Amino acid sequence: MNWYVSVLKNYVGFQGRARREEYWMFVLVNFGVTVVLSLLQALFGIDQVLTSIYGLAVFLPTLAVGARRLHDTGRSGWWLLLNLIPLVGTIILIVFLVQDSQFGNNRYGANPKEKF
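That's the DUF805 domain-containing protein sequence above. Prediction below.
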């Protein structure tokens, strides 16, 4: 949960690097919240209001942590645009996001793994 809150606090921080753990814990909690909100909507017969509001609220933090994760692998955050290519782009982006951090410093900053 700490990773999720730290990403939300740094919601417009597109600079720097994000560890795999930070990115994937954010994605996991984000997915869990979305599932719970969807169940509540189905239970109470509400249209997609809750998930839409939540999606808008976490849109910028999701982009920011994705860009920082790509920075950690030595790639530009612009690679997130691969999501616009159906299926193939998403698969390539997932491969980039699961790769290990680039060793040492890179042009985006110090390796966050070396801080711990």
